[in-house]
Amino acid sequence: MAGPNLEVFKFGMYILFPIGIMYYFGTNLDDRFSVPEFWPKQEQTHKIPYEREEIKSELERLRAKRLALRQQRLEEGAQAQSRNQDQ
């Protein structure tokens, strides 16, 4: 006797649970649970170079940046050494 009642209960849960969720949260889930300006705009993202000249200019920019950082590290190291020798 409990078998058919259980099946009716399960069927009711399968039908009413999603309907209850949709009724409670509504249909505008994107508006309610979205974070404004979460994704970056097209201008803020990286642009991958495809042309040969663009690739060369990007490599030159990266090389110059790397050499500038290296020069800065060497200067800081030299200053640290001179401070250690003075002490």
From TrEMBL:
GO terms for molecular function: unfolded protein binding. It comes from the Eukaryota. The chain crosses the membrane at residues 6-25. Keywords: Membrane, Mitochondrion, Transit peptide, Transmembrane, Transmembrane helix. InterPro entries: Pet100 (IPR018625). It is found in: Membrane; Mitochondrion membrane. One of its GO terms (biological process) is mitochondrial respiratory chain complex IV assembly. It is a single-pass membrane protein. The keyword Transmembrane applies. GO terms for cellular component: mitochondrial inner membrane. Its main location: membrane. PANTHER family: PROTEIN PET100 HOMOLOG, MITOCHONDRIAL (PTHR33968:SF1). Belongs to the PET100 family. This is Mitochondrial cytochrome c oxidase assembly factor. It comes from Zopfia rhizophila CBS 207.26. The lineage of its organism: Eukaryota, Fungi, Dikarya, Ascomycota, Pezizomycotina.
